[in-house]
Structure formats: C-alpha cells, structure tokens
What does this fold into?
Amino acid sequence: MTENFTKIDKALFAGAKAVRENAHVPYSNFKVGAAILAEDGNIYTCCNVENAAYPQSVCAEAGAISTMIANGQNKIKRLYVIGTGVEPVMPCGGCRQKIREFADQDVVIISHGIDGEPLALTLEQLLPYSFGPENLQVIK
Ligand code: THU
It folds into this structure.
C-alpha cells in the first residue's frame, strides 16, 4: 500500500475488498469490487454480476454507480476498484464513460489488483477528450 493513502482510501479499499467477495463470476472467475465516495461522504459499493447471456453482465463500477444513484447521490468524488491478480484492474471503456457522467475530470480513480499495488489516475487520464453532459448544452 502506498504511503499517501488517505483515511478515505483505506475505507474505500475496505469497502471494495469486502463487496468483491460477493461477485457473481461463474464465467470469468474474475472478481471485482468497486467503492465510490459520494458527495454526502458515504461510500457506495458493488461487485460484478455476470450472466449466462454474457453481454448482460454488469461491471462492479456500473453497479456501484447504480447503488449511488439509488441512494439519491449523483457526484462521484473518488472511486476505488479492486480486481483479481497483481495488475491494477483498469475500468473498461464503457465504465469510463459511465463514470464520466457523474465525475469531474480531476476525480481520482484508484485501480488495484488484490495481490498487487494500487494505481491512482484521474478520470481525465483514463478518458481524455471525452464527451459528457455539458456537450449537450448546445441543444435549445
Ligand atoms: N470487470 C469489472 O467489473 N470491472 C472492471 O474494471 C474490469 C472488468 C468485470 C467484467 C467481467 O465480469 C469480468 O470483470 C471479466 O471481464
């Protein structure tokens, strides 16, 4: 664990690690847990939930966003995702766009393989030159 891990990061890590245990992954066996710090200071979590019809599977990040929204929050302040193995689990393209809907460009996303070290990147680093809600403000 890196030295500049904040108290919040420790709580996000714990939340993502715990929920990861509940992942439904009979097809990939790749467990992921995600934890979001929202504007209200609470942490919202979810794991990946796979499906026999593979494309219907839901990523941990997408589930955590749904949990946050269902609890009346719509601002991601920080996000922690823990995957399987040593390499940091990098959010898929679809999840990067889903995060973009609810996060500012400077929001930090920490990716972590359960057996490795965390990697902290901003949303802007993960999804440069992106399209977001403000791009639709041109519509009258
Ligand atoms: N997965 C996530 O839940 N989040 C990520 O950031 C990367 C991948 C899931 C999708 C699928 O259930 C499994 O990991 C393998 O791709």
Q: What stands out?
A: The chain has a mean pLDDT of 96. Helices lie at 7-20, 60-70, 93-102, 123-126.
